[in-house]
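Attaching the record inline, Q. Sequence:
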Amino acid sequence: MTFLEQLKKVTTVVADTGDFQQIKKYGPRDSTTNPTLIYKAASQPEYRPILEKAVRDGGSKGIDHVLDLLAVSFGEEILKIIPGRVSTEVDARLSFDTEGTIERARKLIHLYHDRGIERERILIKIASTWEGIQAARILEQEGIHCNMTLLFSLVQAAACAEANATLISPFVGRIHDWYKKAWNVDSIPPEKDPGVESVRNIYNYFKKFGYPTEIMGASFRNMGEILELAGCDLLTISPALLEELSQTEGVLQVKLSPAIASSSNVQRLPTDEKSFRWLLNEDAMATEKLSEGIRLFASDLQKLKGLVERML
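Structure, as predicted:
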């Protein structure tokens, strides 16, 4: 059996793409999008009709409304292919605005509802800042499910779990990139990868202390990182790595399980605002990658905005 076939038996596989053809090819349960992925897809000729329709339908209400329509339109098409949920991201420029995030999330859910899509199939992606986590706390109370993204540290994960977020997306590859540069090395073995270790610690923390929040490892750089996290609740994987997994045979070892987590020595972290901000500040990697990630998503949103402006 291929690694992909075996992985699907122990972990929910999610497609990290906005490309419908790739989603159809690999048959994931869920799919996740972000401004970068939607910009790449919207720039392709085959997706031009979706972009044109969003401009026609929303142009009179401004560019931000068109961008929301475009995100929901991609989500709608993806949901026609997959049996599970799609993640749609709130504007990264709202990452430090709790009320703004709540308002935008409600709007996205309303736009989906107008198309006959219920909120159970939608995850609203929100940056794991203090403000974003507080927005998620309120949204979850309203039955709007959240996917906490740009997550690089255990304290971010713990705060998200305390807020009852439905799902978190710790970024393996971006942690890997930071340490590769910091350590001045060309490569890091998957079993010693700090990104893999981060997700392992979060998994053990959640399972040991009984948090229902799902963990979805994200942003992988190589197949080895994925195999090291076999058994994680979910893994969101790019088409290139899905292809590699689907073409490679071997024996998959389950590396994460509630039984293993129960015997881990992880300790509870304080998750009040002062403790959160201090512990995040003490983690140079997490602080830098969170800020960089917000800037990058905002930048790609601007590129998408430019694409729409030229059509208007």
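The chain has 15 helices and eight strands. The longest strand covers residues 122-127.

More tomorrow.
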